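job 3f2a | input accepted
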Amino acid sequence: MTYIKRIIALFMVFCAGSVSAQRVGLVLSGGGAKGLYHIGVIRALEENGIPIDYVAGTSMGAIIGGLYAVGYSPEEMTDIFCSDQIGYWMSGRIEDKYILYFKKARPSASMLTLRIDPEARQKNSNQSRLHIPTHLIPSTQLDMAFVEFFAGPNAECGGNFDKLFVPFRCIATDAGARKEVVYRHGDLSKAIRASMTIPLVFRPLKQDSTLLYDGGIYNNFPWQVLEEDFAPDILIGSKCVSGNSKPDEENVVEQISTLTMMHTDYTLPGEEDILIERVFDDVGMLDFAKAEYIISRGYSDAIDAMPTIRERIRRRVDTVALDARRAQFRQAEPLLRFDEYEITGLNEHQTDYVEQMLRLDPKSEGKEDFDFEQFRSGYFKMLSEGDIEGDFPQVTYNDTTGRFKLTLNLHTKPSFKVMLGGNISSTSMNQAYVGLEYKRIGRSAQTYWMDGYISALYSSAQLGERVDFFFKKPLALEYSLNYNHFNYFKSDFGGLGNKNDLFYNKFGDLYFATGLSFPTSRSTQFAVRMHLGRDHFRYYNIPNYLDEDVMDHCSFLFVGAQVEFDRNGLNYLMYPTRGVRQSISAIYVSGRENYYPGTTSSITGLRQHNRHWFGARFLRENYFPLTKWLTLGYLLEGVWTNQPTFENPDVPNLVSPAFTPTHHSYLVYLEDFRSRSFVGGGLMPIFEFSSRFYWKNSVFAFLPDDINKTKGSVRKRMRYIFNSSLVYQTPIGPVALTFSKYDATSNHNWFLTFNFGFTIFNRKGTFY
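job 3f2a | predicted structure (768 res):
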């Protein structure tokens, strides 16, 4: 009996030793935003002391697994993916803080842009001149994020993924060879970037002339590589997709993913292995706004499976010791600082231009190196112009200096652009837009453009050039020939009342403009402009004119100057909900009036007079969120001019500045909202159903001057505008249903309008 007890005791000791040596591998599936599920699973495992000795993943599973492998805790990963930053990564949009307002493209009604390379056939006989985008989402934001997260840890482990905080593997796909690629060593940031590159959604990663795509094309659940490389005693799988299922017919990204993904084996090999899974029918591939919800589901599912996990995995990890080891690994990685950089892919002059924009040369700044944020800031400023693109940044660590070398392989996009767009409207602002642009980058950047807008109410044309110089500070020289034409006989479309206080006239504005501008900060610029041109007005003096009557005609030959300090950080070109727009300016205009009376005028014969005036203007528009669903905006505007009277008393109103705080107010000519001097302002409460769908309301007050003592008291002169728009911002332009009410002399100024697209109005020759 004693002999039997001794055998049993020895067997238990042996079993205990085997348990203590138990090694655990964690496998994470792909799934886009659904892959945030893995963060909750890891959090539950760590809280319960369950060891994670190896981790492998594909696509989003590679991102989460990679972050965990370099020492990010579940809490840190949650903070990352619940922040606003994820919106930039998954849209490719560059944050405003990295964009110089001074360098922002001029506003246009473009809804479709085609790039054409006139020299494409000379470079490659098989290359098309028309440049068609090969992916839906720009990958620059993700590229930069992966460099920031993984370059330091990759240097610390020497490119050996076994030496990370947790040994790591991920899978990509070699499109040419049609096989999976297992990453065990090399550039960690590139490996993870390749693993999540969904075809047609993100730009493929090029490595040694090979195009690499999402590893899920061949294996979306790579437990096999853990078995092959580490042979863990037990596998835990975290699976957030339904497997080989039908895609959502309304979700383009899911359709692309399903078309490119082959059958994956989601069955773990061992009887003791554990699969934690959930099918998300209510989450899309890019639905990162539901991050907290997705992570919480992973946590709750792992907690539900915890009795089984604890029973099968007896070994425990002390969480305090784990956090200490994680901190030690993170502290050992080198800081991401650069003491050398190289630019390839551009000609000599283009390289000089880019270097001036980036300003990364440490020696020129009297420094030994530069940090990642300095690089990111300059790089995004360069990319925001839209004419240069770059491959994945190459970051190489130098053990001797303890610094990194940065290599950027850049390309210029096709230099010629054709832009098409306009506005579909229930008013006379059904407008077509065609724009042409050619850009040449050398030691400076020259941009030549032509814009044309055609509609019954407003038409315009513009032909110009802008030259950007990069000296110690950037400087731009711009000149253009401009023509604007308003036909306010077509401005009463959309009116609901029986009578509208509309003043019908035709206004033409032809002028040559030149100006110098330079940035005073990231969001502001200072500009000096000169205009030389001719305005002409045609109108009737009486409301009950006959068809055979001849309109009065007034022309004004002028020269003008303006200085302006302005900024514009609004999030949308039309119907904005975030940001600030502000302008402070002063003008001087001098010219000669030529008045030709028509048949309805009491004046006979040509009248000529010299006119000149000064003016100043202040404008501020600001939006700030109060709650998740409610945003409040306000607008303040004040204009002062000492504009003189003209021969015909109607002309000063035609020339005078107008209070046009809404897009609809540009479309109607109401005398009561024009004055040579005025103050105006209003509040704009916005109810946001989502970031793109919202209900924007506004009420404005307008007080014109009373220099001629003709309009009575302040209360009698005060006028109001009420506006309410239901807006949806589509990827190509806004859709809006708008109700407008103007408190003019008559109470019948009600308008209901529908618009899809952009209504753009160019600067006036006389500025205000």
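job 3f2a | The CA atoms of residues 525 and 751 lie 37 Å apart.
job 3f2a | closed
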